[in-house]
């Protein structure tokens, strides 16, 4: 605990609020909330913690706090701060956990669609469905039962749906808003459990048609009843009512948390959502944050009712979401919560070994690497490599690893501008200078370790730029390869020495992944530039093929070799007019 933290801890109030933990770069790495700020923030710097929390605390060099008027205000502020700063230690639910919904659009002539995007529009949403097949099956059933609009754009004449009695043909007929309102209400009732009434009505109509010897009509009703049974009644009922509800349960073990959410729709348990993440505050507090993000950033549709396990402040959830929230004490609802908790415990046990293994390969490897090099744990690593073919088309690249994982949004490509074609040292000097001048100018986070794909000479060039020119203090290491071009040694220090690392250690495997990744990235960039330049020179002066069409060809085919081998029809499909495609094809044949 440094002097700044110690002083600030003595000033913390006995009030609710949020706290923001910062690392040595000033980056916010964790946001939390507390009913009593003094107690919660102090707990990070006193007592014992698991290794994961120790890692978080080890990075904290400062913190800020914001006092709020209530616990619900603290929760809302925390959700907004997490969204704003995206701290690396906070739960961040991803948008890829999307489920299909049915939507009745709010157009003059409404239609029914399957969508995975929940928007704040006036459309009516129903779901989620366990998968796209279930959603589309339900839509097909409704297509046959209700004559709403089926076309994306209204045509100028009636279509087959009109002749089948499945559309009112708003393209040629004037349909009143009242007609649509009745139809939308009927569909809503159907999807909210009223399909049994529809089934009973169809059964009566089928019987009446059979009595009147209208056997074809009776068969149509029979088929519709069969479709309803197949689509709507093929799952076992779990509740006696038809209320849409989400059921939450969680389990905690060894500093990790698993949350299971059961989706109950029309009385049926149709799907579940599973999330596993590290835990840095009390489980009950983490659950409030999770629920806020679940219906916020992840965009899940709020049900009519939410069931929570004991210990979670349901009143806060109810204020936050404006839905009915219950902590059931008995009956089927209590059993559903227990089942959700049991599934969370099972999921956590099953995945825990995988989580530990992943931690060992990533952050654990960074810790081992820092210990071997006698430096602070290098959680942010940037690695550089050069590539050229006999001095032609020289390029460089940088890859970034955070917490032992590739951070691809920070990857950078460089075309060398000032260095001579064969000057590898000059290229490295230029690229290191350009990278970290930009980092300083834009106030970006500095790496904890710079790795050069090369030996002592390359390392010295990087050191001259980093320390002598820019006045920075960043450890610089080199990676030497063996005669098979495989990672062999880690070089570091002044004077430069080999860092002893076992080839079977996770730290060594991490270095291999970094070296392979930077090499792959720079080679791919070099090939792209080489192909681009080859195409430019190969087609220079050819009438009808300018820079735009050259770029179009390379983007479509991916390499110069494939362009040379392409037929006239393939060139035409790539976007060249037929005559120019013939000219290019003949040009390469002649060249061969």
TrEMBL record:
Coiled coil: none annotated. The UvrABC repair system catalyzes the recognition and processing of DNA lesions. UvrC both incises the 5' and 3' sides of the lesion. The N-terminal half is responsible for the 3' incision and the C-terminal half is responsible for the 5' incision. Residues 14-91 form the GIY-YIG domain. It comes from Sporosarcina highlanderae. Pfam families: GIY-YIG (PF01541), UVR (PF02151), UvrC_RNaseH (PF22920), UvrC_RNaseH_dom (PF08459). Gene3D superfamilies: 5' to 3' exonuclease, C-terminal subdomain, GIY-YIG endonuclease, UVR domain, UvrC, RNAse H endonuclease domain. This is UvrABC system protein C. NCBIfam families: uvrC. Interacts with UvrB in an incision complex. Residues 247-466 form the UvrC family homology region profile domain.
């Amino acid at each position: 605990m440094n002097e700044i933290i110690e002083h600030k801890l003595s000033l913390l109030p006995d009030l609710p609020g949020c706290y923001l933990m910062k690392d040595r770069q000033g980056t916010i790495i964790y946001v939390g909330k507390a009913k009593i700020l003094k107690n919660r923030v102090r707990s990070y710097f006193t007592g014992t913690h698991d290794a994961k929390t120790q890692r978080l605390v080890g990075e904290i060099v400062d913190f800020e706090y914001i006092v709020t008027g209530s616990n619900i205000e603290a929760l809302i502020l925390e959700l907004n701060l997490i969204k704003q700063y995206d701290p690396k230690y906070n739960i961040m639910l991803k948008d890829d956990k999307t489920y299909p919904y049915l939507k009745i659009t709010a157009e003059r002539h409404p239609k029914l669609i399957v969508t995975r995007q929940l928007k704040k529009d006036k459309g009516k949403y129903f779901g989620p469905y366990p998968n796209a097949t279930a959603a589309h099956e339900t839509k097909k059933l409704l297509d046959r039962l209700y004559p709403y609009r089926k076309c994306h754009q209204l045509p100028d004449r009636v279509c087959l749906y009109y002749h089948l009695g499945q559309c009112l043909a708003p393209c040629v007929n004037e349909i009143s808003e009242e007609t649509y309102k009745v139809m939308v209400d009927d569909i809503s009732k159907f999807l909210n459990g009223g399909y049994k009434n529809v089934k009973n009505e169809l059964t009566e109509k089928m019987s009446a048609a059979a009595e009147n010897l209208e056997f074809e009509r009776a068969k149509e009703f029979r088929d519709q009843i069969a479709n309803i049974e197949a689509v709507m009644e093929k799952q076992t009922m779990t509740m006696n009512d038809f209320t849409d509800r989400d059921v939450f349960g969680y389990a905690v073990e060894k500093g990790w948390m698993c949350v299971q959410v059961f989706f109950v729709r029309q009385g049926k348990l149709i799907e579940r959502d599973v999330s596993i993440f590290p835990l840095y505050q009390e489980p009950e507090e983490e659950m409030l944050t999770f629920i806020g993000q679940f219906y916020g950033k992840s965009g899940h549709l709020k049900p009519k009712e939410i069931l929570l396990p004991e210990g979670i402040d349901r009143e806060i959830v109810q204020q936050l979401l404006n839905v009915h929230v219950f902590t059931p004490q008995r009956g089927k609802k209590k059993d559903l919560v227990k089942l959700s908790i049991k599934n969370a415990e099972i999921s956590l046990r099953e995945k825990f070994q995988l989580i530990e293994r992943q931690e060992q390969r990533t952050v654990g490897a960074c810790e081992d690497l820092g210990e071997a090099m006698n430096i602070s744990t290098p959680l942010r690593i940037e690695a550089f490599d050069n590539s050229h073919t006999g001095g032609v088309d020289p390029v460089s690249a940088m890859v970034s690893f955070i917490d032992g994982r590739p951070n691809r949004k920070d990857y950078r490509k460089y075309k060398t501008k000032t260095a001579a074609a064969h000057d590898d040292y000059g290229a490295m000097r230029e690229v290191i200078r350009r990278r970290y001048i930009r980092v300083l100018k834009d106030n970006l986070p500095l790496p904890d370790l710079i790795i050069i794909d090369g030996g002592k000479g390359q390392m010295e060039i990087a050191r001259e730029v980093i320390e002598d020119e820019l006045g920075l203090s960043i450890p610089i290491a080199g990676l030497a390869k063996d005669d098979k071009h495989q990672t062999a040694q880690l070089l570091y220090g002044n004077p430069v020495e080999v860092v002893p690392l076992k080839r079977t250690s996770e730290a060594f495997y991490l270095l291999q992944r970094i070296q392979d990744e930077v090499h792959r990235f720079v080679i791919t960039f070099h090939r792209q530039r080489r192909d681009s330049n080859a195409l430019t020179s190969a087609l220079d002066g050819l009438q009808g093929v300018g820079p735009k069409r050259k770029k179009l060809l390379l983007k479509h085919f991916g390499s110069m070799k494939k362009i040379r081998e392409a037929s006239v029809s393939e060139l035409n499909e790539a976007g060249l007019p037929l005559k120019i495609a013939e000219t290019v094809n003949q040009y390469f044949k002649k060249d061969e």
